[in-house]
Write a structure and sequence with these properties.
Blueprint lengths: L6 E4 L5 H11 L4 E4 L3 H9 L2 H10 L3 H9 L5 H16 L6 H10 L1
Parallel strand pairs: 1-2
């Protein structure tokens, strides 16, 4: 599935959003559904087997998922630093040693 974009429906309901989600899902695109209540998502998710298996995998960790989406505390800044460091490392792959990598990380 590399190179395929994801499709996200915000305010998913029984109308055009559901039809578009089903179409993109049939074509193999990753589909994300966002709605105010889980009840409105269940009929749509039933038609998307890969989404259904993903949500079933999240169910055992429901408390952690809810906390991650609702609490004001997060580790976004640390994850951003990790992502930037990995990007710089990939750009320099095989070209320089640790001293230059350290220099680039500290200066950016």
């Amino acid at each position: 599935m590399s190179g395929m974009g994801a499709f996200v429906v915000v305010g998913a309901g029984p109308g055009p959003g559901a039809a578009a989600a089903r179409r993109f899902g049939r074509e193999g695109h990753p589909v994300g559904l966002i709605a105010r209540s889980a009840e409105s998502l269940e009929p749509i998710a039933a038609d998307l087997p890969h989404l259904h298996s993903f949500t079933n995998g999240l169910e055992p960790d429901r408390a952690a998922v809810d906390a991650g989406l609702t609490r004001p505390h997060h580790n976004g800044r640390a994850e951003g630093v990790n992502t930037r460091t990995k990007r710089i490392t990939r750009q320099m792959h095989g070209r320089a040693g640790f001293p230059l990598l350290r220099h680039r990380i500290l200066l950016q």
